[in-house]
Amino acid sequence: MPRGFSEAERAAIRHKLLSYAESQLIAVGLHKISVDELAKAAHISKGAFYQFFASKNELFVYLFNEAERELREKVREVARKPHDDPRERVRLFFYDVLTLYRSTPLLRNFKQRDFETLIHEASSDQVAQAVRDDTRFYGEILAIWAQSGLKLACSPAQFSGILQSIFVVMLYMTDFDNEYKSVTDLMISAMADKLVADSASIVSP
Fold first, then answer.
1. Residue 205 located in a structural domain
2. Phi, psi dihedrals of residue 159, rounded to the nearest 5°
3. Residue 149: which region, alpha, beta or left (left: phi > 0; alpha: psi -120 to 50)?
4. Cα 132 from Cα 136, distance rounded (Å)
């Protein structure tokens, strides 16, 4: 049975596990890292690893959630950028969010296979909670825009789905190869046009 650790030891080991896992995720990807390797980097046994995380994927989910939490504050800042043209404001927002994802090392190297693995192994409750969190966050973005007079004719859930579709294109970017930029441009322009056009068609009572 793995020995117990003091609070100070636990904090130090957890930090080593997270730091090493993040560096390796950026360098080689999720599927090339083993629990044995993580435990060795933190100078603990494989059995002791499970005192800190229930699985390798639980550790990775924690890292991705932390990266996304930090990213969301930057997305809020992007949403606050003013622009005289509503369509252009929405279009630039999509591009800025995409740029933020691609400039975040941990998220930039997140591949289709990684995403599918984490989703497959997540519980239905975890997936449902992630959907609720995304919907709540993108509801904040719509509220930020509404406060400045830009009111889009879509729900937070719909808007979250739009951002997820852009994220999916990013996951498959190696499949699109040279067509990636044109596919992204087409999606973003079409979605910005649709959202703003639908909003403009609403007649206030």
1. no
2. -65, -40
3. left
4. 6
For residue range 18-70, what is the model confidence (pLDDT) as tens digits? 999 999 988 888 888 899 999 999 999 999 999 999 988 889 888 888 888 88
Tokens of 149: 């007079």
CA distance 172 to 187: 14
Domain of 48? 1-53
What's the token pair of residue 146? Answer: 């509404």
The span from the CA of 31 to the CA of 57, in Å, is 10
| Total domains in the fold of the chain | 2
38 and 87 share one domain:
no
Contacts of 60 (CB under 8 A, 6+ apart): 21, 25, 30, 114, 118
Give every CB contact of residue 200 below 8 A, 6+ residues apart in sequence.
86
59 alpha-carbon distance from chain centroid = 15
Tell me the pLDDT tens digit for each residue of 72-128: 999 999 999 999 999 999 999 999 998 888 888 887 777 767 777 777 777 788 888
Buried b (16+ CB within 10 A) or exposed e, 58-78: ebbbebbeebbeebbeebeeb
